[in-house]
SHSP domain-containing protein
Amino acid sequence: MTVHFSPVTSPATQKMTDNPNRRQVDAEDYYRRFDRSLAKRYVQLVLAHRRRTAALRTGVSTEPLQPRMEICDAPDSPVITAVFELPGLRKDEIGVHITPMGRLTISGERRRPPLLNNESEGLPRYPVRELKYGRFERTVEVPPGLEVKDISANLADGMLSVSWPRHSPSATQVSQSGSASALASSSTQPHS
């Protein structure tokens, strides 16, 4: 016994497939949209490549760098700790900011050291340039309502450790007024 299957088509689908001109228009429209999306993606890749090349050439990135980090979240601990890799920076070059909505941001700028002057050859050469300089920023979600006083931070050997309570102690009394000015004055340096 032989069973033949035929595709089930609705009258509207049957009408479209019966008209070869309609199929041609649909195919052209599909390929035109596909071509535009490929061209758009190609332009994005070229521009990103140019930005990366310029950053490598100058050693300074135009987009904020993201320092590497680890978050330690031990279930039995009352605090959560994030460790950020920030080699060569001092406390006064690092900003620790927090929003009432629960976003902790570490930011700053790693500046290039003064150039070494080699008087015999003029400007210094860099046969290898792997160090990254420029603005950096990293944001971590924390419990909403957390304040700067609830956070402890310590910078040692290029590693910034930032700890905060698992649950916000001031979650019931979040004050929107005046928090920006308090943060601006007290959150520019991590607590030791």
DSSP finds three helices and seven strands in the chain. Confidence is low (pLDDT under 50) at residues 172-192. Residues 90 and 117 are 25 Å apart (CA to CA).
